[in-house]
Amino acid sequence: MAKKIVKRVQPTKQAVGKVKKAPPQKKPVSVRKPLPEKAAPKSVVRKKTAATTESQLRSIDKDLVKLLNKRMELTIEQLTEIKDRHAIWFDPNADQELWDRIEAESGGTIPNQTLRSIFREVLSASRSRVKVVRAAYLGPPFSFSHLAAIEHFGKSADLVPVNTIASVFEEVNRGHADYGVVPIENSTDGRIVDTLDMFTRLPLRICGEVQLAVHHNLLSRSARSEITEIYSKPQALSQCRDWLSRNMPRARTIEVTSTSTAAQLARDKPGAAAVAGKQAAVQYDLQIVAECIEDNPHNVTRFAIIGDEETVPTRKDRTAVLLQIPHAPGALSDALQSFKNFKVNLTWIESFPLRGPETGYLFFLDFEGHKKDPTMAKAIAALEKKAVRLSVLGSYPRSAPIE
Predict the structure, then answer these.
(1) Domains of the chain by residue range
(2) Is 313-397 a domain of CATH 3.30.70.2740?
(3) Confidence (pTM)
(4) CA–CA gap between residue 74 and residue 77 (Å, rounded)
(5) What is the tens place of the pLDDT at every residue in 182-207?
(6) Which residues, other chains included, contact 182 with Cβ-Cβ below 8 Å and sequence gap of 6+?
(7) What are 88-120's pLDDT values in tens digits?
(8) Which superfamily does CATH assign the domain made up of 229-293 to?
(9) What are the residue numbers of the active site?
């Protein structure tokens, strides 16, 4: 069998040249991803934030000081141009305009009452630079009468505590004080007899009012279970009568001249407590055992600012008078008809027996409007025709209750 011969053809050089060699493979280049930045420690962030905040506060404080000083300088300049020295401390229209403007422009974090307190102290300091005013109040310090005095005059005024309501009237009547601050009415207990009685004795006017929301607290250094005596002034104990009988039936209530005196006793006497305001707790280092214990949550005391001047109408005024009428049937009804005829809103009436041998009563009347208003002047003239005696105690701007 013949063998099959296979010829192997050798590639020519030309053919060999045409053969393409595969390109050498490149090694892949590894791309390094950037490492994420490490977050700063929280303590560092807090320090940076605190430093920024502190820097902003310093800048704001600097601006505030400049503005408050400028405000005071302009106020003093304005006050020095006033010829009536009484108007430096008593300009109810200007004050009300300021309070209204502050309320309209507020709306931020600061409550209106706080803003009012700030501006009140700027005004008080400015007025004191032009004319120092002295105001007597029923003390001791940090009583509600003191708080009312601060609300009206500010802390830059010369505020003088005295022991009795009669003493407040006497200080003003003798010229030892320019004004006085006395409680006149409470929404729970009604009239303050000592104040109304003094208006029958001395020729002083009411030229303003302050209404304070009065919240009573049980203050002591002893535990509630260890309290055996509770001190306060009669009005405060009366305004908390139901709460005390329900919650402190074993404790004896003892009347003293003021809530501040009660707080001093609670501070010094083991087992003693006081019914007083929160400010007394701060002043006398007492614990608040129970808060807001007044029976009426809307408990408001009205304080009268007494002096010897008249105020201008503000369109939001009250007028107070003392009225004596004939001691005869229908005499009071006939006198009060004047208010109906002239559409005057009578808001308060109290009666007192006449002093001495004379038979009859003296009436304290409070009504809306200013005596210089034309309608009010006619109503008072008609009332005077029915009276044995009529004394206008004053017309003064009404105030809203303040917390």
Answers:
(1) 68-130, 229-293, 313-397
(2) no
(3) 0.79
(4) 5
(5) 999 988 878 888 999 999 899 899 99
(6) 137, 138, 145, 165, 168, 169, 192, 195, 198, 303, 304, 306
(7) 887 777 888 888 888 888 877 888 888 888 999
(8) Periplasmic binding protein-like II (3.40.190.10)
(9) 301, 303
